[in-house]
């Protein structure tokens, strides 16, 4: 069977789950957010990672129903966690270019925010530079509309696409996420170190928050902190965790 059909079936059978990767404030050490990352728990193949299926889902438009499931589940989880006392933690959801282009996204978000009483700033959408730059005349007004609904917006994989800096100031963003490819060799590659430092300075100048992704070592963390980086996520703090493990993780870090 083709991957497309497997995916179709997986959506019907509800085989997906979300894992959450904590984001840490480098000033206070507190957890300020979590990125929701989809996992496919296939009955025979076991846990399938998104690199194996997100592209296929995008190509055959299944990213719309899959993305709908992800948003519904993330919003349900936000409201469950806030009832359990986890209030100041924003959940980030990855949105593909196709989702951003679909009008249905707006209806869905309105419904979810109302149903789950999502407070402004509790839900963040991560959009890649290429998804924004694909058709900025369409995406910029849409992003403004989302922002007006109280949804926070981050640029994911920042530095790997080609968003021009003149667009960056027009976008209603809350944060930039420095791509992990720049963080990886920060200790040994002066160009990567310079790119991270420049991105941190850029975010500060534009009044944006910043998350460094893929932080795995103390040395990477120290360099980023010395450059004034606000927050980070990566294996150094935690891998993405099943929802059930999150409360315990957070209580160890407050
Ligand atoms: O979770 P990983 O650990 O494997 O994620 C791999 C890639 O899949 C990342 O680029 C991430 O942005 C993407 N991804 C993970 N979850 C989702 C999702 O719910 N929707 C979309 N569109 N992409 C996702
Ligand atoms: O493209 P996006 O930033 O959404 O992708 C997040 C991806 O990065 C997920 O696949 C996640 O599992 C992975 N990831 C998160 N932290 C680390 C890390 O410290 N090292 C590596 N190699 N990957 C990470
Ligand atoms: Mn992401
Ligand atoms: Na990224």
From TrEMBL:
Keyword Nucleus: no
Domain EAL: 1-254
Keyword Membrane: yes
A GO term for molecular function: catalytic activity
Lineage top rank: taxon: Bacteria
Keywords, ordered alphabetically: Membrane, Transmembrane, Transmembrane helix
Protein name per its UniProtKB record: Diguanylate cyclase/phosphodiesterase with PAS/PAC and Chase sensor(S)
Taxonomic lineage of the native organism: Bacteria, Pseudomonadati, Pseudomonadota, Betaproteobacteria, Nitrosomonadales
